[in-house]
């Protein structure tokens, strides 16, 4: 691509054909480097001045007050952009307050286009060339002011900034709705399952009998761990049998539809693993102790998991939610064997005790209720993933 071609974005609004002009960030935006107040002047009094020192003081692209100070050094005005100049370099946010800025950030007076442009510069790793090889990742005033950027005319800047801002708003909206649902689910997990009293605090109308204590191993028809092929034999990993790994659990939103690894039938035989059928609950016993998911595929699993197969899916879903509660309340912690790596053993999993309804109608009502919440959470996550992918594409194509 020659210099002339480089001044035109791949994607732009109708009516714009002018080339973008190359310039330096400091030529179009006022930049103020931060200066930290004396730490003895830090406070937790919201009546004092908000202090922004770095990425820890920003969340979802906005300043979130965390520390205050009685000393004013350098300031950023309400509406300014806040750029992290120390690790992690390049994170960008906005401030809805007048704030004092520490040496970990810089304030930039820029419009929405500049804000989105700085987001893109972080995404493409623009700032890494300045911090590579340094013992402490940072950028200085000269590097920020001399950052080379390409700008369209103001009207096109406004159009680009507006649509990307709209996408950010939609992403934030779905993130908040997802968080609200997750908080609701967490609260209901505590209320809708019985404790040692045998009675839940909240339950569906028409049910009043006491719940019974059950041992986990009495609830499923088959359970057990698998095995792991030796990593020295790479042939084991060249097959077409899905093989469950810890990362599949940690990335899961409750259901696993595919895995990152596959093994051959030789690998399956050598490891003494067994194929776990679709619908099983897989509980992590190593590394990510307590994390669990329901398999939507037939897969082989390593010894890192305890797998449970149920013939009653209503009961399975209720047990799944009860085990989620155990994870939230850190009930596994008291059962963990400590060492170089935290782990549960199979006997402790099988002997885990819980209170469950005697009436199958109540089991079905509760499991269906939580499934609806999980589906709503998953829906917002899918929308989030789609919006973020679309935003990523726009950042790539709508800028030079």
List its salient traits.
400 residues, 5-stranded mixed beta sheet, 10 helices
Description:
The chain is α+β, with helices and mostly antiparallel strands and 400 residues long. It has ten helices and 24 strands. A five-stranded mixed beta sheet has the order 3-7-4-11-8, with no helix packed on it. A five-stranded mixed beta sheet has the order 15-23-20-21-17. A four-stranded antiparallel beta sheet has the order 2-12-9-10. A hairpin with a 7-residue loop joins strand 9 (81-84) and strand 10. The mean pLDDT is 91.
Q: How does the SSE layout of this entry go?
A:
Elements: E1 21-24, H1 25-28, E2 30-33, E3 42-43, E4 49-52, E5 58-59, E6 62-63, E7 67-69, E8 74-76, E9 81-84, E10 92-94, E11 99-101, E12 105-109, H2 112-123, H3 128-131, H4 141-145, E13 148-151, H5 154-191, E14 212-215, E15 222-224, E16 241-244, H6 246-250, E17 255-256, E18 261-263, H7 265-271, E19 275-276, E20 281-284, E21 292-295, E22 299-301, E23 305-309, H8 313-328, H9 346-350, E24 353-356, H10 360-397
Helix pairs in contact: 2-5, 5-10, 8-10
């Amino acid at each position: 691509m020659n210099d002339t071609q480089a001044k035109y974005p791949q994607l732009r609004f109708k009516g714009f054909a002018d080339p973008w002009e190359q310039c330096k960030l400091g030529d179009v935006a006022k930049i103020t480097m931060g200066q930290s107040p004396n730490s003895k002047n830090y406070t937790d009094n919201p009546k004092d001045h908000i202090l922004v020192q770095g990425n820890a003081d920003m969340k979802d692209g906005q300043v979130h007050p965390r520390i205050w100070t009685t000393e004013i050094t350098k300031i950023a005005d309400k509406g300014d952009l806040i750029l992290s100049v120390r690790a992690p370099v390049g994170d960008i946010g906005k401030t809805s307050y007048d704030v004092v800025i520490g040496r970990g950030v810089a304030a930039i007076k820029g419009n929405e286009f500049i804000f989105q442009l700085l987001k893109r510069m972080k995404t493409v790793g623009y700032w890494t060339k300045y911090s590579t090889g340094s013992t402490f990742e940072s950028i200085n005033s000269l590097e920020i002011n001399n950052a080379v950027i390409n700008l369209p005319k103001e009207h096109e800047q406004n159009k680009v900034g507006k649509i990307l801002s709209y996408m950010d708003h939609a992403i934030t909206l779905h993130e908040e709705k997802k968080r609200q649902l997750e908080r609701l689910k967490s609260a209901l997990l505590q209320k809708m399952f019985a404790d040692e009293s045998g009675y839940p605090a909240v339950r569906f109308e028409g049910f009043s009998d006491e719940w019974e204590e059950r041992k986990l191993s009495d609830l499923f028809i088959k359970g057990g761990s698998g095995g792991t092929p030796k990593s020295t034999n790479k042939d084991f990993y060249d097959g077409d049998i899905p093989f469950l790994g810890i990362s599949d659990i940690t990335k899961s939103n409750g259901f696993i539809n595919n895995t990152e690894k596959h093994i051959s039938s030789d690998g399956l035989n050598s490891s003494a693993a067994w194929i776990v059928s679709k619908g099983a609950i897989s509980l992590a016993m190593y590394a990510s102790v307590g994390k669990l998911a329901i398999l939507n595929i037939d897969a082989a699993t390593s010894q890192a998991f305890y797998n449970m197969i149920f013939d009653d899916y209503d009961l399975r879903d209720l047990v799944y939610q009860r085990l989620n509660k155990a994870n939230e309340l850190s009930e596994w912690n008291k059962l963990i064997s400590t060492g170089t790596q935290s782990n549960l053993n199979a006997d402790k999993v099988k002997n885990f005790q819980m209170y469950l309804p005697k009436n199958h109608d109540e089991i079905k009502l509760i499991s269906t209720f939580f499934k609806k919440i999980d589906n709503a959470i998953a829906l917002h996550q899918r929308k989030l993933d789609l919006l973020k992918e679309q935003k990523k594409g726009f950042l790539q194509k709508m800028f030079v």
